[in-house]
Design a protein that fits this description.
This protein is 35% helix and 21% strand. Helix 4 packs across helix 5 and helix 14 packs parallel to helix 16. The chain is of the alpha/beta class and 510 residues long. The strands form four sheets. The protein has a six-stranded mixed β-sheet with strand order 7-8-9-3-10-11, sandwiched between helices. It starts with 7 loop residues before the first strand and ends with a strand. It contains 18 helices and 20 strands.
């Protein structure tokens, strides 16, 4: 690539979806030089992820580029590439970190094999790919890279999957890296480590970075310039007072001080068993977890260590009362998502019990378990992976109502529309396919679907991580209202101290 050409240049980029009736992206123009970083912010549904997919030629079915669109990677015109040409470029010269890592990773392959195959596809030896794999995982803050490399994606937390994708994207030292919300599932310490790794990639290899995030502070600290995307168009004025082409100075990277936020500091340093009194303390708890041990077997753990050495959760006990909100906090990989999956019986436990409303969940199966799961619902961290991509938003919510025998046909669709409206989902998108929605929009569909059966307990795993401030406020207000009007108990997993402090009188640190 010529040093005189921008790493990435975009002119007149437009995208339309079949039936949308308008351009989802309209007349997008910018250039990005070697080693520069451009931040892109904007509300949920503004087109940020569509922009990223459009740059890599990965538009979903039914989407089309507008006439006059031009995308250039150095001297290469991307619009001229066929499938074979894209295979040689995508992942090697231009790479992407997807917002929903569970959708981007192969569920049946261990991390090691997936990353080595990427290197092999682009001409690296397996030995060199393995070396870079270890280097990348260590850079992403993994103290035991072998254990992470030997796990399947479902055996990793959301934050761990996010960091694995970053290591994979950085494997080939690409000329351009597009990172779509790469820090949403990370605790503050890991967030800073990822920011440092991206800065090093720019400095050491001249990689240009397009960083998409709702976190304005992150963008200002880590980017040369920031632009706002609204209704598919770049705002006339950047969010920060700097030209898109880059500036000579930028704000210093933010660092995290646990002591700066008393709630988070107390949560992360307290006992793993909450001790404060809970509502309805005299009544039997709705949920009781007793001495829970959950772990995964990985090839890097020898037989002598198999019994508990690789446990993610060890001897964990707590209770949750009816109508209570319990916050679950902790660093990436601490076991927060594992806890949610163990409670839902989506993961086997080594030892311990999970008792819901007096019923030991390990003691039931089949129809009794299915009936009980109506009262125990889950909003997964990777919303896109939890929803059927081919269905419309309303059909996905209606399906949950039909599965549990609550409503069928037109009645289910009517209730689905009301649930979507309750979570602030745009009425114009109720018939849109899941795979055409933004991540924030899919997250709200997942919340509506979980609320449909009228659960007694809702487990929310990072329910606001992919939302802009306005939508985040809508979801938090909704959860508050459900707690107060329905008496809904919440297990709220989040890295957002403000959300935890607002909703959860008790905190379980992992």
């Amino acid at each position: 690539m010529s040093a005189t050409l921008p790493a990435l240049r975009v002119h007149g980029l437009g995208v339309t979806f079949a039936g949308a009736g308008r351009l989802v992206l309209d007349a997008i123009e910018f250039s990005l030089g070697r080693g520069e970083a451009l931040g892109v912010c904007g509300p949920s549904g503004a087109g940020k992820t569509t922009l990223a997919l459009a740059l890599l030629g990965l538009l979903p079915r039914g989407a089309r580029y507008a006439q006059g669109t031009e995308r250039h990677l150095g001297a290469l015109r991307l619009d001229d590439l066929d499938d074979r040409g894209w295979s040689a470029v995508r992942g090697r010269r231009i790479a992407m970190v997807f917002q929903e890592p569970l959708l981007a990773l192969h569920p049946a392959l261990r991390v090691r094999r997936q990353i080595v195959e990427v290197g092999r596809l682009h001409g690296l030896t397996d030995q060199e790919s393995t070396r870079r794999l270890h280097e990348g995982l260590e850079t992403m803050g993994f103290a035991t890279p072998d254990r992470i490399a030997d796990r399947f994606p479902h055996q990793l937390s959301g934050g761990q999957r996010q960091r694995v994708l970053l290591a994979m994207a950085m494997l080939m030292r690409p000329e351009v890296l597009i990172a779509d919300e790469p820090t949403t599932a990370l605790d503050p310490e890991r967030r800073d480590a990822v920011g440092d790794a991206l800065a090093n990639l720019r400095r050491d290899h001249g990689t240009a970075l397009l960083l998409i995030s709702h976190d304005i502070a992150l963008l200002r600290a880590r980017c040369d310039a920031v632009v706002s995307l609204r209704d598919g168009r770049l705002a006339d004025a950047p969010v920060v007072d700097a030209p898109v082409a880059g500036v000579s100075t930028r704000a210093a990277p933010t660092t995290y001080d646990a002591g700066a936020d008393p709630m988070t500091h107390d949560a992360l340093t307290a006992s793993t068993r909450p001790t404060s009194a809970s509502p309805n303390a005299a009544a039997a708890p709705l949920l009781r977890v007793e001495h829970l041990h959950v772990g995964y077997h990985t090839p890097s753990v020898g037989a002598e260590d198999a019994d508990g050495a690789d446990d993610v959760l060890r001897d964990l006990s707590f209770t949750l009362a009816r109508g209570e909100v319990l916050g679950v906090v902790g660093p990436s990989g601490a076991g927060k998502t594992t806890l949610a999956q163990a409670i839902l019986r989506l993961l086997p436990t080594r030892r311990g019990r999970v008792v819901f409303d007096g019923t030991d969940l390990a003691a039931i199966d089949g129809e009794p378990l299915r009936r009980l799961r109506r009262r125990l619902q889950h909003v997964a961290q990777d919303a896109g992976a939890s929803l059927p991509a081919h269905q419309s938003a309303s059909a996905a919510v209606a399906e949950g109502l039909e599965v549990h025998g609550i409503a069928r046909g037109a009645a289910a669709r009517t209730q689905a529309a009301a649930l979507l409206a309750e979570v602030g989902f745009p009425a114009t998108l109720v018939d849109a396919r899941i795979d055409t929605l933004s991540t924030g929009e899919r997250q709200r569909v997942a919340i509506a679907r979980a609320l449909g059966p009228g659960p007694d307990l809702l487990i929310c795993d990072e329910p606001t991580a992919s939302l802009d401030p306005e939508r985040r406020e809508q979801v938090l207000a909704l959860l508050e209202r459900l707690r107060d009007t329905r008496g809904l108990a919440l297990l709220l997993i989040s890295h957002d101290p403000a959300a935890i402090a607002r909703l959860a009188p008790r905190v379980l640190p992992l």
